Amino acid sequence: MNKPNPVPSKVAARPNRALRWLTGLPLAMAAGALAAESITVVSWGGSYARACVEAYHKAFTAETGIEVLLEDYNGGLAQVRAQVDAGAVHWDVVDLEMADGKLACDEGIIEPIDSAQLPPGLNGEAPMDDYMPGAVSECGPGALFYSTIYAYNTRYIQGSPPTTIEDFFDLEKFPGRRGMRRSPLANLEFALMADGVPLDQVYAVLDTEAGLERAFRKLDSIKDQVVWWEAGAQPPQMLADGEVLMSTAYNGRIFNAQVLERQPFVIVWDGQVLDIDGPLAIVSGTSRLEAARQFVRFANRPTSMAYVSKYISYSPTRESAKALVDKHWETGIDMAPHMPTAPENMKRALQSDWRWWSDHRDEMNERFSAWLIR
């Protein structure tokens, strides 16, 4: 995923003017689509957005006749706030991170979603019994699990390869540049885990001034070797080009580069930060409210969630959808072992605390921005 609220930059601040895909409609008919009933859905772009298009956007259009116009962004709430404040809402549904979803709901800039009113499980289970623990907020459910991991290109690794999160920060053993997202999210957790903090104490340590200073000191140790990325498509490209020796990345983006582009990448699951993508949030003030609600209900069907895993290695948040995770649509690879929630990949995984980030996001962004320019 492109997949947390990035620190603003000149690149990230540019408005997205292009419609990336028009699902269920030839490009030549785009002008006609704008006149028909349609909604604009904003997501993370790249292979993740394409997976959603194939998994359920097209099926939604076929069932309802409502066209889906897809735009991409790099996360955050700035554009949503601006549209709502100006009373000029042109985004209808936005794929948010859980922490941003709670913030947006608290601010009243998205419509709250009653998870109990969403579709039942495959066997008729009540929605609240079907979502996995931690996947539902007061304002709506998350749709899938993804992880921020780090990966390397075997072409550029000499000798024994890296296997732990500590290795990512070891410039003596593995000299070379590192790719990291231009955001404190996951980076602070990686730093503390690499500095020896047990997984079950990471957020307790981050809750202290001494813990924050410890995290930034660890980041300081590699800062002059970091290439910062903002979009999820960038790490695979940087690894392929040899621009960096290792890079943090979203696991699904690396998986797709491995199986579709035959890139010799290796994912290091040790210290992965497991997170939940969602909710699919309806922007307050949209004039297409009912169509947006239909889309959100459709996207939260167990089948819609599970079919995403046919195209990218992100796993559903509904128990009844897990049984539908099958093989990759093009290569026939069994997808279950590549899910971030697979037991083998979860041996030393940190579950991201989206509630902590919702409470501390603005403060951490300010502190991270100040650290970047120091």
Provide the number of structural domains.
2
For the record, the CATH class of the largest domain is: Alpha Beta
The number of distinct β-strands equals 14
List low-confidence stretches: 2-35
What string gives the helices and strands in order?
A: HEHEHEHEHEHEEEHEHHHEHEHEHHEHEH
Number of helices: 16
CATH architecture of the largest domain: 3-Layer(aba) Sandwich
Biggest sheet: strands, sense, closure? 12 strands, mixed
In short:
This protein is an alpha/beta fold.
Report on the structure:
With 374 residues, the protein is an alpha/beta fold. The protein folds into 2 domains: 10-145 and 276-333, D-Maltodextrin-Binding Protein, domain 2, CATH 3.40.190; 146-275 and 350-373, D-Maltodextrin-Binding Protein, domain 2 (3-Layer(aba) Sandwich). The chain contains 16 helices and 14 strands. The protein starts with 9 loop residues before the first helix and ends with a helix. The strands form 2 sheets. Strands 1, 2, 3, 4, 5, 8, 9, 10, 11, 12, 13 and 14 form a 12-stranded mixed β-sheet that branches. It has a two-stranded antiparallel ribbon with strand order 6-7. The chain has helices at residues 10-13, 30-35, 46-64, 78-86, 98-107, 127-130, 165-168, 187-194, 202-206, 209-220, 234-241, 251-260, 289-299, 302-308, 319-322, 354-373, and strands at 21-23, 38-43, 67-72, 93-97, 110-111, 136-137, 140-141, 144-153, 178-181, 226-229, 246-250, 265-283, 315-316, 350-351.
Q: Any descriptors?
A:
single chain; 374 residues; alpha/beta; D-Maltodextrin-Binding Protein, domain 2; 2 domains; twelve-stranded mixed β-sheet; two-stranded antiparallel sheet; 14 strands; 19% strand; globular; disordered N terminus
